[in-house]
Amino acid sequence: MTALLSLYATIVAKLERADWLLPTVARFLFAAILLVYFLNSGLTKLGEGFSGIWTPSVGAYAQIFPRVLEAAGYDTDALSFFHKIIVLAGTWAEFILPVLIVLGLLTRLAALGMIGFVTVQSLTDIYGHGATDALGAWFDRFPDAVILDQRALWVFLLLVLVIKGAGPLSFDRALASKSG
């Protein structure tokens, strides 16, 4: 039993010195699981042609402000400048923040922004789209609720990056070594 405990202590000590492992794996998993999801979601919000980055699609407004757009008769011109700015910011965030995380550039700030994005996305799904059936519940026997279960894991992954940073294979590390 002593030999087993000694082996365990040796392994644990090595893991505690592997500071690079957690943020590197977190960025890899973000890229593998969420990067394409967010990029595709952002693409659905772009308007026609190159100017679509400045003129979001009707679908963008429908995704972000579903009840407001419905009340306006699906006429985006009837919405305020505030609505357009929020839709543009949300659309750009779906492109910029994930790419920053994968590159490891301004990672802590980008991950914090993504946590805010996921929170707003979840609240919009619940209150704007009425997706209460996807809400789920914690401490139940079902681990697959889209909002409480799945997005809690997304936020945890992002929290690892907020706390630990991007790890050694990142632009953050390269920039820090040049400035220090």
From TrEMBL:
It is a multi-pass membrane protein. Keywords: Cell membrane, Membrane, Transmembrane, Transmembrane helix. It comes from Sulfitobacter pacificus. It is found in: Cell membrane. The chain crosses the membrane at residues 20-39, 95-118, 152-171. The keyword rRNA processing does not apply. The keyword Transmembrane applies. This is Oxidoreductase. Belongs to the DoxX family. InterPro entries: DoxX, DoxX-like_oxidoreductase. It comes from the Bacteria.
